[in-house]
Amino acid sequence: MSTSIFIFNGPNLNLLGTREPEIYGTTTLAEIDAACVAKAREHGLSVDFRQSNHEGVLVDWMHQAHKAKARAIIINAAAYTHTSIALLDAAKAVTPPVIEVHLSDPHTREEFRHKSYIGEAAVACFKGKGLQSYLDAIDAVAAL
User: Fold this and answer.
1) Which distant-in-sequence residues (6+ apart) come within 8 Å of 127 by Cβ?
2) DSSP-assigned beta bridge partners for residue 5
3) 3-class SS of residue 45
4) Which residues are catalytic?
5) d(Cα 12, Cα 79) in Å, to the nearest integer?
6) DSSP string for residues in 7-43
7) In a structure prediction context, what are the per-residue pLDDT tens digits for the chain, which is 144 residues long?
8) pTM
9) d(CA 49, CA 61)
């Protein structure tokens, strides 16, 4: 079984640390990346960590993870979680299991955030724990 985890981050997550810290906290995306690499290493796994503000790029990366026979895809699709049927279709089309993550809990926020297209194909969802949501997802991948 592959030891590679692909972790994809959607729009505006490059602004973490300064973007609405009352919702998303002050941890930067670079800090999340470093923590994910360290957590994966504890399990003998590696991480390919990426961020894009473009939906099609995220779809292409899911296809790349599929071709690379990744152990899993962890995705924080950000706003695309609630709008992207393209990401849903990609998640359904690839063989690595897809795990959804969110820093906040979308179900405690605006009603439009309650619908998750990614969630329709994801095998698990970790939300509302900030950075810990990512780390819990990596632990779940290690248990696969």
Assistant:
1) 100, 101, 102, 103, 104, 105, 106, 107, 133
2) 47, 72
3) coil
4) 24, 102
5) 9
6) EEE-TTGGGTTTS-HHHH-S--HHHHHHHHHHHHHHT
7) 789 999 999 999 999 999 888 878 889 999 999 999 999 999 999 999 999 999 999 999 999 999 999 999 999 999 999 999 999 999 999 999 999 999 878 766 668 666 889 999 999 999 999 999 999 999 999 999
8) 0.94
9) 11
